[in-house]
Write a structure and sequence with these properties.
heterodimer; A: alpha/beta; Rossmann fold; 5 domains; B: alpha/beta; Arc Repressor Mutant, subunit A; histidine kinase (chain A); phosphoprotein (chain A); coiled coil (chain A); KdpD_sf (chain A)
Chain lengths: 877, 232
């Protein structure tokens, strides 16, 4: 190892490469308002402009501070965009104008700002991302308390929760962070002088936020953050340049997101631990059968995603093994968990998650996050959406019912058997209302049973060892049943939900694969999306880059103009846009991309506004699965359409070049003969014998006929290839048609043609003229390619739902490798010297004509003794 | 009709061509021999000793380009190619492979007969004297011994050595097409056969100096150049 020269770390190099092409980001970071971030940014902007760079101030908040306003100097400022919102005129940063102007450097104050409703992005940092993606360098300002992962700490320090936060990755991704630092005392002095706020505001600020302790703590955080960053920069530099050094061990931090109030704290804390360790952050949520009624983990999962964690959700029966398996599989070294409030009996038995992990996860560092001091009351939402008291109320009711039944059965059944009736009641309670009501039911049932039926009756006393044993066993079995049946019921419910999901997926893939064309597919997808979401849905496909609605359920629904802007965004960026997303959240519709490796093939739009209930997670997941499947199927359909188009184009190309080649040869030869014959007659007609002169004239005449036929063929084939042939449909007597064609051919060729016409032929609706042309071509070929003394046979017979016409000759036949080509336009089988000339169009025209009448044509050769060719035409009867 | 005129082997797979060429050639005083395939042509060329061969490049059994060298291997008779218009590359290849000239289908009979005369005359001339001097081409006289070229009785043309070489090369093959390749090889040498721009420049100079008889030097588009008139 020591021999190998150190190599730059590929991952670091890749990250550096990804930054190229993107605009740089410089953040002026401060610990509190008034430290001079904007001042410094403007001052640096002016010096940059003095060097000739294009610097534009996108948005400036001077807060009425004269010093800051003076720093603006000659820097150009972008006019603000006006947004009308509920009768108010709001002013916002004009993102589109900035993108059009494309300055080299754009100064944009207050990164943590939340945009006015109706803006493209809800947050300014998202505007910055877009600017950077467009290659514009952005300078911006921010106070450290707005950092997402610090918001909890900051809230503890200053007692105010900051609403406007910036995800950590934005700062982490910044190319430069400049800390604007002044000692708290100096800041307070400036505040008192009225340099930061107006006097009355300043007085309030001094009592609230601007306490010296607060400022000192925030300053410490800002300094530490910047120091961490500097460290990371150095490490990144060292890695990129392969400088050997002591690396932090390959730490990985796993945040365990449970269903309790600590979940979000766990994520934030884990982020900080990961930052300090410079380790990647993972987050895991384990969905269990027995946990459907506590905190919703979704916000914590979203937060984890925003904080740059690799988030995963798994389903398991038991949490600890699933956590350990995940942790081991991902080489996790640190696990962060919240100290939730487990059920009392678990705490007593030591079966809490924390305890289990401490016992089993000896190879991990465990971080326990304390439960928040003021936990909001646990939210109970029972499995069937019934209020919690119903379960408890059901306990006496069911026990009473069981008592009634026991009284009826008393005497017929031994008193021990009556216990079974009570057990049934306990099982019912467990199945319907969970383990706690069932346990209560078990206790109550035992007492009632003991009092009413066990000897001595009407006392709680038990008469003998048998009764005591029986009672004890009853109680234990009832409790066990309460626990397991409750769990079982819920397992069944979870399993049923998953089976439902799976069945839905299978159903979906069946429908999707059954839809052959993109046109059918979009209808299926729109229908399924509407069904899954319970909302109006539509499918949009890009046409010249613009999303266009291609199918909708209900059929006549269409997104409004404002929503279509979101659709364009979703199409261009390949991300969700519109309602409740990061882009254009004020739209009524939400658009989700259908993505494949090749890009966004289309969008599914859902009208979200005006719906009382949000979509549940199960249906949301099913919808995403639908999108994935639809994307792949759409891509396939589009590829197939492209392929068919290309094949058709190639065929047309091939025909065109064959046509050109044919005209080059087949038109020129008769013209040469005609011209030559006529010239010979003119120049030396006198010297030629009469017979020679006659022959020359005959040559010219025959060649004229040949030319005429050739031109007719060319016109036919072009008409067929362009689909301009519209066959007439009238009943045709095929026997008569065959006889007529054969007789005409016999007259012109002098050859014998035998007609073999079946009795009682149907009279299919066809075009008599086209049939005649097909027969003429086939008979002509048969005669041309067979010896003069042999016979040609033409037959007509019924063949199932079709009529078959066959033409057989006894010529030399066609080689198998030629057979597949003989219907191609301009194809000519290589033949001996004696064979007459053809254009290679006859069979191609036959095929075209037969196809136009919905029939088929095929060739067989040799047919007997290695000789002969049979052409078969099948026409619908 | 029997005569003792030069024998011409007509190689074409289209019977109609033979039907009119036969009588036409006979009437012009030649003895036509008919071949409808490449193999037939090789046999006839070997046994009948033709004075000239008329070869259609589009034969069913042997490609015309492949047939040409096989004919050349044992038969010295000049070859005139019959080919389709548009196949310039094919013509050049055949000419470079040793064919004397070409006609395009559909050709005029008079033009074909004129080409046949030119080619037969040249073939005959080589036996007498290759460098007959002075050469007369229309109003142009070229005296090879005195290295003089003049139009009628005008002052002699002022030609650079290269232009003189080009003019005499063209004049020696008068009436016959020469490919760029052939001209470059003869005038500039085998190292410059790809330098077609030399040729274009010098042909331009030569045309300028030829003045009123510049029409003698004709371009055969895509193929090469032809010097002198056809006596149709």
């Amino acid at each position: 190892m020591a021999d190998e020269p150190p190599r730059p770390d590929p991952d670091t190099l890749l990250a550096l490469a990804a930054k190229e092409g993107r605009g740089r980001l410089k953040v002026f970071l401060g610990a509190a308002p008034g430290v001079g971030k904007t001042f410094e940014m403007l001052s640096e902007g002016r010096s940059l402009k003095a060097t000739g760079a294009e610097v534009l101030v996108g948005l400036l908040e001077t807060h009425g501070r004269a010093e800051t306003a003076a720093q603006l100097g000659a820097l150009p400022v972008l006019p603000r965009r006006r947004i009308a919102y509920r009768g108010q005129a709001l002013e916002e940063f004009d993102l589109d104008a900035a993108l059009v102007l494309r300055p080299q450097v754009l100064l944009l104050d207050e990164l943590a700002h939340s945009n006015a409703p109706g803006s493209r992005h809800p947050k300014r940092w998202q505007d910055v991302e877009e600017l950077r993606a467009a290659g514009i360098e952005v300078w911006t300002t921010m106070n450290v308390q707005h950092l997402e992962s610090l918001s909890e700490d900051v809230a503890r320090i200053i007692g105010i929760r900051v609403q406007e936060t910036v995800p950590d990755h934005v700062l982490a991704d910044a190319d430069a962070v400049e800390l604007i630092d002044i000692p708290p005392a100096e800041l307070l002095e400036r505040l008192r002088q009225g340099k930061i706020y107006r006097p009355e505001q300043a007085a309030r600020a001094l009592k609230g936020f601007f306490r010296e302790g607060n400022l000192a703590a925030l300053r410490q955080i800002a300094l530490r953050r910047t120091a961490d960053r500097v460290d990371a920069d150095v490490t990144g530099y060292m890695r990129a340049n392969a400088i050997a050094g002591p690396w932090p061990a390959g730490d990985r931090v796993l945040a365990l997101i449970g269903r309790d109030a600590t979940a979000e704290d766990v994520v934030r804390q884990a982020r900080r631990i990961a930052d300090v360790l410079r380790a990647p952050l993972l987050a895991l949520h384990v969905e269990t059968a027995s946990a459907t009624d506590r905190f919703d983990p979704a916000p914590a999962l979203l937060l984890a995603e925003r904080l740059g964690a690799e988030v995963e959700t798994t389903v398991a029966r038991d949490v600890p093994p699933a956590v350990l398996a995940h942790a081991r599989a991902h080489n996790v070294t640190h696990i962060v968990i919240g100290r939730g409030r487990p059920a009392g009996w678990r705490r007593l038995t030591g079966r809490t998650l924390t305890a289990t992990l401490i016992r089993q996860a000896a190879d991990f560092t465990l971080h326990l996050i304390p439960a928040p001091t003021s936990v909001p009351g646990r939210v109970r939402a029972e499995a069937r959406g019934l209020p919690g008291w119903v379960g408890w109320a059901a306990v006496p009711v069911l026990v009473c019912l069981a008592t009634g039944a026991s009284l009826v059965a008393d005497g017929a059944v031994p008193e021990g058997g009556l216990g079974m009736i009570y057990l049934a009641a306990v099982v019912a309670l467990a199945a319907m209302f969970g383990p706690m009501p069932a346990a209560a039911g078990a206790l109550l049932a035992f007492l009632v049973w003991d009092f009413l039926f066990l000897l001595p009756r009407f006392t709680f006393a038990l008469s003998g060892i048998q009764e005591v044993m029986g009672a004890a066993i009853f109680f234990c079995v009832a409790l066990l049943l309460a626990g397991t049946t409750g769990g079982l019921g819920r397992s069944v419910a979870t399993a049923r939900a998953r089976v439902f999901g799976l069945r839905r997926l299978i159903e979906l893939s069946r429908k999707v694969s059954a839809a052959g064309s993109a046109g059918d597919l979009v209808v299926v997808v729109a229908q399924e999306a509407a069904g899954l979401s319970g909302r109006p849905a539509c499918v949009l496909l890009p046409l010249d880059g613009e999303p266009v609605v291609r199918a909708a359920r209900p059929v006549d629904i269409e997104p409004d103009t404002a929503s279509m802007a979101a659709a364009r965004w979703a199409q261009a960026k390949g991300t969700r846009a519109g309602f409740a997303t990061d882009a254009l959240p004020s739209a009524d519709w939400q658009f989700r991309p259908m993505r494949t490796a090749q890009g966004t093939v289309g969008l599914v739009g859902l009208r979200m506004s005006g719906m009382a209930t949000p979509m549940d997670a199960e249906h949301d997941r099913a919808l995403d699965a639908l999108l994935d499947q639809a994307a792949i199927a759409l891509e396939r359909a589009q590829l197939m359409a492209d392929q068919a188009r290309n094949a058709a184009r190639a065929e047309t190309e091939a025909l065109r070049s064959a046509l050109l080649a044919s005209i080059g040869h087949d038109l020129r030869t008769p013209l040469t003969s005609i011209r030559g014959a006529l010239e010979t007659l003119r120049l030396s007609g006198e010297a030629l014998p009469l017979a020679a002169r006659d022959d020359l004239l005959a040559t010219a005449e025959e060649e004229t006929i040949r030319l005429t036929r050739y031109l007719g063929n060319i016109v036919d084939i072009v008409r067929l290839e362009h689909g301009q042939l519209q066959p007439k449909r009238e009943p045709v007597d095929l026997g008569d048609a065959v006889r007529t064609a054969a007789e005409r051919m016999m007259r012109s060729s002098g050859r014998r043609i035998r007609c073999d016409i079946a009795e009682r032929l149907p009279a299919p609706r066809l075009d008599a003229a086209l049939i005649d042309q097909v027969l003429a071509n086939l008979l002509d070929n048969a005669i041309k390619f067979s010896p003069a003394e042999t016979e040609v046979v033409v037959a007509v017979r019924r063949d199932g739902p079709q009529v078959a016409i066959t033409v057989e000759d006894q010529g030399s036949g066609i080689a198998p490798d030629m057979l597949i080509h003989i219907f191609d336009p301009f194809f000519r089988v290589r033949r001996g010297d004696q064979a007459p000339a053809g254009t290679g169009l006859g069979l191609a025209i036959c095929r075209g004509l037969v196809h136009a009448m919905d029939g088929r044509i095929a060739a067989d050769s040799p047919i007997r003794d290695g000789k002969g060719t049979r052409m078969t035409v099948l026409l619908p009867a | 009709m029997r005569n003792d005129g030069p024998r011409i082997l007509v190689i074409d797979d289209e019977p109609q061509i033979h039907r009119f060429l036969g009588p036409a050639l006979t009437a012009a005083g030649y003895e036509p021999i008919r071949a409808e395939s490449g193999h037939d042509a090789l046999r006839q060329a070997a046994t009948r000793n033709p004075a000239l061969i008329l070869l259609d490049l589009g034969l069913p059994d042997i490609d015309g380009h492949a047939l040409l060298p096989r004919l050349r291997a044992f038969c010295a008779a000049p070859v005139i190619i019959v080919s389709a218009r548009g196949d310039e590359a094919g013509k050049v290849a055949a000419l470079d492979a040793g064919a004397e000239d070409y006609v395009e289908k559909p050709f005029a009979l008079a033009e074909l007969l004129a080409r046949i005369r030119v080619v037969l005359r040249r073939a005959g001339a080589t036996e007498v004297a290759a460098n007959q001097t002075p050469m007369r081409i229309g109003p142009l006289t070229i005296d090879l011994d005195r290295r003089l070229a003049r139009i009628d009785e005008d002052e002699p043309l002022h030609l650079t050595p290269r232009e003189w070489k080009l003019l005499t090369t063209l004049a020696r093959s008068q009436g016959r097409v020469m490919t760029q390749h052939q001209l470059l090889n003869a005038v500039w040498g085998p190292a410059h056969v790809e330098d077609a721009q030399y040729l274009r420049v010098y042909i331009g100079h030569l045309r300028q100096k030829l003045g009123r008889v510049a029409g003698l030097l004709r371009t055969e588009p895509g193929v090469g150049y032809r010097f002198g008139e056809l006596d149709l």
